[in-house]
Amino acid sequence: MSALVVSNLLLWLAVVALAALVFALARQIGVLHERLAPAGALLLRGGPQVGDPAPAWAGADLAGRPIRLGGPSEDGRGTLLLFVAPGCPVCKSLLPVVRRVAAEEAARLRVVFASDGDEAAQRHFAAEHGLDRFPYVVSAELGLAHGVGRLPHAVLADAGGIVRAKGLVNSREHLESLLEAQARGVASIQEFVASSHEPAARAGEGGR
Asked: Span 163-175, mean pLDDT?
């Protein structure tokens, strides 16, 4: 066997190995893309579902100011109702993000905090974390009406009092996903990602 034939064989082996390597890398990029899909708030099934009217509630906040939840808003803004608790470390870590979102979205969104339990502890918690300027409601009935089982739990209602997004929010991405879900008209970012994959999946099935 001449040297030329041997070199050609080695060259073809290198080409085949390179093609296999490119295929493997492309597959890994696809897997990585799936794992980096937008992180959305975990949609919980308790309480009113997306598209339902938010439960009506009326009373006073910790400062004694009258507040009404549910139904059309008086100022045309939506409502972000965030359930927190003084003993919830994740809630505390999320508060700076909530304050920032409240400032950025003030023209179209009001932020209301809600909790239950000892009122003195709630007052201390609100004062310690600069929540005094927000409506802060202490009501076990409100949490039950929304089916809150884990914290921090957020419910985003539009100006008409309709629930547009909700879920367990453990991070900035989760909280912002509620606003993104409302803007896209879906119940959750997970639903949006799943629906965006369906056409591709159907196209793949049709091509078999």
From this structure: 90
CA–CA gap between residue 61 and residue 142 (Å, rounded) = 12
Q: Using the structure block, give the residue that is written with the tokens 């990585």.
A: 32
Q: Is the peptide bond before 135 cis (omega within 30 degrees of 0)?
A: no
Q: Which of residues 200 and 142 earns the better pLDDT score?
A: 142
Q: Record the tokens describing residue 26, joined without a space.
A: 């492309």
Q: For residue 59, what are its two tokens?
A: 């009373």
Rounded to the nearest 5 percent, the helix, strand and coil shares of the chain are: 45, 20, 35
In whole angstroms, give the CA distance from residue 203 to residue 94.
41
Question: Rounded distance, CA 102 to CA 105, Å?
Answer: 5
Residue found by looking up tokens 């007052």 in the block? 123
